[in-house]
Design a protein that fits this description.
With 69 residues, the protein is of the alpha+beta class. The protein contains two helices and five strands; from the N terminus they run ββααβββ. The strands form two sheets. It has a three-stranded antiparallel sheet with strand order 3-4-5, with no helix packed on it. The chain has a two-stranded antiparallel sheet with strand order 1-2. A hairpin with an 8-residue loop joins strand 1 and strand 2. It is globular and about 40 Å long.
């Protein structure tokens, strides 16, 4: 699966994002994603999707919080 992280023009594999952030293998297996309309919006605790960011013409926002315990 791929996501277009904030500030990037292209997409990046989730596995590459986790490698770049030096996430240990046991934790990689527990990483969750939030999808909307079949697209990954958030690699929870790691990266947000650029096409789904809040813009000037945004009229509705769904606030989701994640607490890493």
């Amino acid at each position: 699966d791929k996501i277009q992280p904030l500030g990037m023009k292209g997409k990046k594999k989730i596995s590459d994002i986790l490698i770049d952030q030096k996430v240990p293998l046991p934790q990689k297996k527990q990483v969750m994603v939030l999808k909307s309309g079949g697209e990954i919006v958030w690699v929870i605790g790691h990266k947000f999707s650029d096409p789904h960011k809040v813009k000037k013409n945004t009229t509705k926002i769904l606030r989701i919080e994640y607490e890493n315990s």
